[in-house]
Specification:
By secondary structure, the protein is an alpha/beta fold. It contains 7 helices and 9 strands. A 7-stranded parallel beta sheet has the order 3-2-1-4-5-6-9, sandwiched between helices.
């Protein structure tokens, strides 16, 4: 595999073969960005044509030695099915973010983008705890970063949360649960891809957080600006 040059990498993505990555990378390519994606065994074919790839393990810092400097480092790696049965996978998320932070610093990334989870929430406590630790690691790293906090993302293969919409309507109607409904609201896949694109194209100084309401707004801003 040919080692990329600095000019060939503007955005480096981990988790590019995952649910969000498979939609984000084509969007970035459409908008003229140069994308390099980290791939594991058998995932190369899931990366959109036009993006370059480099083989590596998200838990092994050695991949940092094979990537060039980049403007933005996007970390999309995370437990796909958070729950007690996947406790080991969730704990590995913290190890992966520590490697990603070190790799981003080594690549002199000026912008770091990370997908966390809405919090606090009454369920998935262990998952939230790991994500809080991941966020804390980003904050102490000194990186300029955007942290996105969705709850459930509606899209292909992720339709079942629509069944919870009546509950959300009830929660919005009651003053005592309205804030929780806003914090734990549903976002669409288009919202997320738009918000991720916004976070990449409008970097910040320091660390900012996109809550559910911010994800929707950023996604809309990106759609209007296309």
């Amino acid at each position: 595999m040919q080692k990329p040059t600095i000019e060939e990498c503007e955005i480096f993505v981990t988790g590019g073969a995952g649910y969000l990555g498979r939609y984000l990378i084509p969007r970035l390519l459409e908008r003229g960005h140069r994308v390099l994606a980290l791939v594991g065994p058998g995932t190369e074919r899931k990366i959109a044509p036009g993006a370059q790839t480099v083989a590596g393990d998200v838990l092994d810092f050695s991949y940092a030695e094979r990537i060039p400097s980049c403007d933005t480092f996007v970390h999309l790696v995370g437990a796909s099915h958070p729950g007690p049965a996947n406790a080991k996978e969730m704990r590995s998320d913290l190890a992966a973010i520590r490697v990603a932070i070190a790799a981003a610093l080594a690549a002199h990334a000026r912008n770091f983008v990370y997908v966390s989870v809405a919090q606090p929430a009454p369920v998935m406590k262990a998952y939230q705890q790991v994500r809080v630790q991941c966020e804390d690691a980003i904050r102490v790293s000194g990186l300029n970063a955007t942290i996105l906090r969705p709850w459930y993302v509606l899209g292909p293969g992720h339709r079942w949360p629509y069944l919870t919409l009546p509950l959300y309507w009830l929660m919005y109607a009651l003053p005592s649960t309205r804030d929780a409904a806003r914090r734990l609201g549903l976002v669409t896949l288009d919202d997320m891809i738009g918000a991720l694109t916004n976070a990449i194209e409008t970097p910040c100084f320091g660390v900012r957080t996109f809550r559910v309401i911010d994800i929707r707004a950023a996604g809309s801003d990106t759609a209007r600006g296309r």
